[in-house]
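With this grant's support, we have settled on a layout for protein records. One resulting record is reproduced below.
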Amino acid sequence: MQITGMLWGAKLLEYVDYPTAEVLGPDATGAQVKDLIDRWGSVLIKPIFKGGIGKKGKSGLIGRATDLATAMREKERLFFVEHRVGNQVAKAEGVTFEGAVPAEHEIYVSISDATRYRAPTLTITHHGGVDIEDLASDQIATIPFDALTGFKGFIVANALDSIDAPREIISPLVQNLPKLWDLFSNYGMSMLELNPIRMMPKGQGRLVPVACDFKCSFDGDDPAWHRLSLPDNLESASYSAFEIEVNAAARWAAPIRPSRWCRARSPSIRTPATSRPRSPSIC
């Protein structure tokens, strides 16, 4: 299962107290949206897609508004928009309104189970907000680490030093990024990505790394993600109509009758009324 977007991403990041952009769901009222605009200057309007699908920005599927009227027009445009990436097609089921976080630096961070290293691996760059594939290799740091000792702050510091990241962003990331390991390891994730993290100024020259987009996938063999109490239909849109029909039919399927070979080998049962042998109904 995969989750994208801040509607659920912000809720998951709350488990580890990681800073996130302020998010309103599709049921937000006009007064709530106006209040968000007043406090942040503008809002980003993003469609909600179930499952994992990206490249919404390049497809023009992210709106921005500095007033309520524009925000409502963008909501109408994106609420049921259809998005195609290669052979994958998804239809939106609402929108989110996210406060626009001011920042000079954008960070890309992911933690994943890398088969290349057979270990959890940090991928980080201070050239965030773009597709990671578009960057040169010397702009990205990829660092495997030991799952037993965990994801420590010095791993972040060493990775950022290796790509000559600005000094002012290193300390806030060292303090906050290790929180992501708690979410990744405790709830059965196989990949966790934040892109972008916007480094928001917060008085006296301090920066706060605010997550502004979220993506994760779960290990289907690890039941730990059930502790997150996610809704059952969170990724139902990723199934075809045929798959939904088959899954529904399977829940109502009749029990399998025993084979003739199984019945033949079963011991006979005598009933008191007839004293004739009767084969059991099951093996």
